[in-house]
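Figure 2 data, in text form.
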Amino acid sequence: MADKANTMITTNTRHYQGNPQKNSPALGATLAYLGVNGLLALLHGSQGCSSFIRLQLSRHYKEPIPLNSTALLEDSVIFGGWEHLKKGIAVAADKYKPQIIGVMSTGLTETFGDDMVSALASLRQERPDLDDMPVVLASTPDYIGSMQEGYQRTVEALLTTLAGHSSQTKEPSVSGTASNSNSNEDPALYVALLPGCHLTPGDVDELKEIVMEFGFRPITVPDLSISLDGHAELEAAPVVQGGTLLEDFQRLAKCSACLSFGLSMEKAGEILKEAYGIPCYNFPSLTGLKATDAFILTLAKISGKAVPEKLLRQRSRLLDTLADYHDQLGGQKIAIALEMDLLYSLASCLVEVGSEISVALAASQGGIHKLSLPIPIEVGDLETLEERAAHSNLIIANSNGRQAAGLLKIPHLRAGLPVFDRVGYPQKRWIGYEGTQQFLFDMLNSLS
């Protein structure tokens, strides 16, 4: 009878997204560029696209977002934006004097077929004085996926264009970066960190602190923990203030190892491995006991040092939390709708503590066939979440998931981007032993 009943179950297939959870790839590209010091971000598209990205990111980070646009209009789209791009790069270089210009495309310009590479080559012929200006080109049309894909492509473009780049100017030192090192330091102490877009500035800070516990000097690409960490600035600037320095890209070739975080960052690590023969390690998750153990043991192995007492103490606290609350964590039904890397990171941790994933909806296809959970991961919108999460105990999604949570009367833990109705999200930590412990506390408090 059970088999017969199962055959009668039908699912309604929708051919639209009623309440999309995905962000645009250009937003992900902007996020990656915002982690590079002295960079001017230039969106090759309409003014409306850049305005929406600034709105979305400023609501999330509560910071001014330096983003410029080539401001294409109807006639520009019809006849092509090639000349607009050349003029945009030239004006940006002349007016703002950035150290780097980062360009990202949009669906508008990609569909028309604007060739950014040839436009840049033509500009350099016309303006030989701009030959030394590093310009990074990232192809991020709307139809390649979500924020994660745009961020991924942009990090790869940054590494391809700037890794090993010979810096012409002296950079000011910024606390927490490899630039504080003196010239006599052993370059083998450098280690490259490639955080995915699912990590908050607080997470990146935690990441660097853990690595430094083993005696390494991290070079983080991109480094949002300096540019979008919520520090006070005297005035807004058109270029990024804080982040990875241009001279840090030159040091990447000397790193003793490359650690990438999130499956989407695996290819970026491979770029450094192929170019410089650097050993590369990818960690799909840094949330949960098992995932954090794997990261810490890798650091111990490549450094040749014992695990620091500080980290052992943090691990002990997490174990105690698991012992104290195992009865409340086990059996909880959790519905999750997030970007793929963050979805897997949090869901795998929940499975580890005995919770049940009732719904797993990713914003895009990225990594969907490589990352596995006890239930299939599907690509879906927040309307799908509303349809599937009725029997769950908790929803984990960005602030836009509040509509489904309110309708279903289910507690809602905010995660991902955007989070605009909770205070302090950019400084929040979800990774490592302490971040995992705090995530479990937040989950239990939300349930209560």
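Caption note: Residues 383 and 428 are 27 Å apart (CA to CA).
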